[in-house]
Amino acid sequence: MQAATLEFREVTKVYPGASEPAVDRLTLEVPAGDICVLVGPSGCGKTTAMRMVNRLIDITSGDILLGGESVRTKRPVELRRHIGYAIQQIGLFPHRTIGQNIATVPRVLGWPKARIRERVDELLELISLNPDEVRDRYPAQLSGGQRQRVGVARALAADPPVLLMDEPFGAIDPITRDRLQNEFLRLQAELRKTVIFVTHDIDEAIKMGDRVAVMKHGGKVAQYAVPAELLMDPADEFVEQFVGADRALKRLALQRVRDVDLWKVALVREGEPIADVRARLAESDIEIPLLVDASGCPVGWLSERGLAGERVQRRLRSPAEPLIELDDILRDGLGRLLAEESMYGPVVDAAGRVVGVLSLEMIAAALQAPASDVPSAAEMAVK
Amino acid sequence: MSPAPLAQVEIHERTGEGCVAENGFCPGWIADNIDKYWAPLLEHVYLCVASVGIGFAIAFTCALVAHRQRWLIAPFGAFFGALFTVPSVAAFLLLLPITGRGNTTAIVALVAYTLLILFRNVTTGLRGVPEESRDAARGMGLTDQQMLWRVELPLALPEILAGLRIAFTTTVGLATLAFFAGGGGLGEQIYSSRAGTGGIYFQSNVVVAGGLAILLAAVGDLLFLTIQRLAAPWRRTRPA
Q1: Is A95 touching B (CB cutoff 8 A)?
Q2: What is the CATH number of domain B32-232?
Q3: Based on the domain organization, do A155 and A15 belong to the same domain?
């Protein structure tokens, strides 16, 4: 189903007996097909805000529009059947098989059996599980990561235009979580659902969000922006503190080495005439030529003595380290340079051929780039 | 134990065997008289099944009502608890003036005793349903009824069956007292000489009638255990 825009208009929630609202005049618009992350410390109202979308919590005042229609005009049960719902504790039904779990919403919607079966298999394949192996198992027979994926598949079962995810990867070990996040971003690149994603983890927010709403106590939005802007230009002290002192580094995680203009370097091969090398050196951004082998793979930085004769000799001042890959994120590139205590390092493509040089200076420059030039991680996954 | 002369004489006259006269354990006598136990056994089964069945219907309904109206759990529990504490013989006798002698009185009393166990187990079972399963069910748009029948009750089923198991075995035992109210059953055989098998003072009779009651309890127990295992296949799985 086509994704729908989701709009919070002055949405307020006051719990009975509470003196302060849990969510206070929340106003934000999520474009169709975007992931909007609600992030903030516990008790900031992010989950409450999310649960008002499918009316698990009643709205005190204001309105939420889904594809232009108020959620208040629909029967809650009907509304929820067309909004995907995935939670941290997953909430798979332990007494039903994986197939039956995924089929929950299609069944209450009254889909024919054959169509449900087809859909279950399709979804299992989508989340990289073998339908024949997993369909008839019980949740207890799956690993935590597999269960979480099934939870997401179940939320997607009736192909809802909107997906609500409450810390869906919260209770999972860091390595599996990273894999599941990437997997979800790939999935999302294909499905293009409008997603409300709740988390307390700013790194996850920056990684998953096309847009991030940082919320603070009292259910107020401190800043609603694309991740790069959040990192570069925090709206207030709270956001600055929340994104952390390492926000510059986090921002580097949003760019890949291939996204920046690499320095040109003079590549030389053993036995080449020096005159050619001199000409190339004049055009390069770095004074030292890089010796490469016949296939273009780096050998090492050439010393002055290597250029002393008529032809290039294999005399190195230092090895060609660290090697940086085009697909590395800038943060990892920086990490490699720092580890080798080097100001710059050759960048190689997938085949190992030198395509340029990455330097600390360039990374510093990348941090000054305007937010609009920096893609979100979700966009990066699409590339 | 000094045998009651009347019973002794009755049996003695009827069978004329030495073993019986000595009030021993007499396989011969048992083989001759076993057919006299079928009717009481069936009566006993009827008492138990009817009581547990009616008791379950009442307790289950109350538990479902209390599931929606939480505040009712305490008063229901207190009421069923009070019924449970009435001494059993007293209950049978107390009911006599109201319902008269017979099956009805016996069943009413037996039902009263099953209520606490069954109500408790249904409530506990429903309360044991993981909150996240409930949240997911509601979030996906299941109605309260769908949630109850598709999620909550199936998950509570093992607990509910455990309650039925306990209730049934307890009732088999209690039903031996039903004869006080004229309810028949194996109790009649065990205690009363009027049944024509010698009553409580004839050992062979007590062994057979008591043994049948125990056997009935064991069979019921096994039956519920089997259903319990069949009804919850997900509990038997191990992580692959």
Answers
A1: yes
A2: 1.10.3720.10
A3: yes
Residue A80 touches chain B, beta carbons under 8 Å: yes
Contact residues on chain B for A56, CB-CB shorter than 8 A: 135, 138-139
Q: What is the pLDDT of residue B72?
A: 93
| Cβ burial, residue A298 (10 Å; 0-12/13-18/19+) | buried
Name the domain boundary from A251, A270, A297.
A251
Q: Considering only alpha carbons, which residue of chain A is nearest residue B132?
A: A91
Domain residue extents for chain B: 32-232
Q: Cβ separation of B139 and A164 shorter than 8 Å?
A: yes
Q: Do A141 and B240 touch (CB under 8 A)?
A: yes
Per the CB < 8 Å rule, is B137 touching A94? no
Judge: A141–B135 Cβ closer than 8 Å, yes or no.
no
**Does some domain include residue A373?**
no
How close does chain B come to A104, measured CA to CA in Å? Answer: 8
Q: Please give the share of chain A, as a percent, with pLDDT higher than 70.
A: 96
Domain of residue A118 covers 6-251
**A100 in reach of chain B (CB within 8 A):** no
Are A95 and B240 in contact (CB < 8 Å)? no
Q: Give the end of a domain, one of A251, A282, A299.
A: A251
Q: Which residues of A touch B146 (CB under 8 A)?
A: 108
Statement: residue A2 has pLDDT above 60: yes
| Chain A interface includes B236 (CB < 8 A) | no
Phi-psi domain of A158 (left: phi exceeds 0; alpha: psi -120 through 50; beta: other): alpha
Query: Does A375 reside within a domain?
Result: no
> Do B33 and B197 touch, CB atoms closer than 8 A?
yes
pLDDT of residue B239: 54
Helices (H), chain A: 46-53, 76-81, 98-102, 104-108, 113-126, 131-134, 144-156, 174-191, 202-208, 227-232, 237-243, 247-252, 274-283, 330-339, 360-368, 377-382
Partner-chain contact A85 B136, CB within 8 Å: yes
Judgement on whether residues A227 and A176 belong to the same structural domain of the protein: yes
Give the pLDDT means over successive 10-residue stretches in chain B (240 positions).
45 56 76 81 91 96 94 93 86 82 86 94 94 94 94 94 94 86 79 70 80 91 91 73
CATH of the domain at A358: 3.10.580.10
Residue A279: inside a domain:
yes
Per the document, the length of chain A is: 383
pTM for the whole structure: 0.77
Q: Do B130 and A94 touch (CB under 8 A)?
A: yes
Pair (A37, A150) in one structural domain: yes
pLDDT digits (tens, 9 = 90+) for A298-320: 999 988 888 888 888 888 888 88
ipTM: 0.78
User: Do A83 and A161 reside in the same domain of the chain?
Assistant: yes
Cα A118 to Cα A135, A157, A329: the distances in Å are 12, 11, 39
Total domains, chain A: 2
